Amino acid sequence: MSLLRRPLLHLRRRISSISAVAAASVRQETWTQAPLTLIEPASSDGSLFHVAVDVSAYPDLASSHTRPGQYLQIRPPPPVGRPTFLAIASPPSLSASDGVFEFLVKSVPGSAAEVVCRMRRGDVVEVSGVMGSGFEVGRISPPEVARTVLIFATGSGISPIRALIESGFHADERSDVRLYYGARNLQRMAYQERFKAWESSGVRILPVLSQPDEMWKGLHGYVQSAFARAKQIVDPLSTGAVLCGYRKMTENVTSILVADGVSKDKILRNF
């Protein structure tokens, strides 16, 4: 090969590589327009909303939701500000059977999420492809691998936890499954109407309120502090955990669990 052709070949390979990256970027930015089928308050203070999107016309998109904890981006068209990342709150079985994605959306002032929460049923939004590997439940399965499963969620971080619980992970076959669910107060706590069904599936619900009223007799403070006071880990080697919420909470809880002998491999996150 001549000295002249070598730089040319290198340049062609470089252009080809750049083109491949650009093409991948374009694929990642593919948006699908789909109608809203549900918009209603999820908390009595109006800070959280139940939102559902009908993607039944796009079976490939619906079927790409395969594991609790996966997420996507959503925005109102034409694009308003930066899109919002939302964990899918409904179990994959609902995507497969009805072609519906359900979300728990926090209405943040000035964000695309706030705009979506002000829309109406039948309005169209744009959604990206499903992202992430979700919760790797296989790391705490079968039940004998993790007889105890400790679940921690704060704020809207409860949405992928709902997907996990309602997908089923053999909670009723384990000896101890606890959900520490943190919120400012009961007025900001979503899914209270689902607690009874969750508990019947084998999950003990432990609400933790950081700013409760004087009538509250349950756990108070932050989730990590409430757990640090209780712990009650009988066998760290047979304990798993699932975390979703504020970064400080997940970091602090992880530190507590690891210090008590829980394997990092059995501590699951969806990001």
TrEMBL record:
Gene Ontology molecular-function annotations: oxidoreductase activity
Natural source organism: Acorus calamus
InterPro entries: FAD-bd_FR_type, FNR_nucleotide-bd, OxRdtase_FAD/NAD-bd, Riboflavin_synthase-like_b-brl
Domain FAD-binding FR-type: 29-137
UniProt xrefs under PROSITE patterns: FAD_FR
Domain of life: Eukaryota
Pfam families associated with the record: NAD_binding_1
Name of this protein: FAD-binding FR-type domain-containing protein
SUPFAM superfamilies named among the record's database cross-references: Ferredoxin reductase-like, C-terminal NADP-linked domain, Riboflavin synthase domain-like
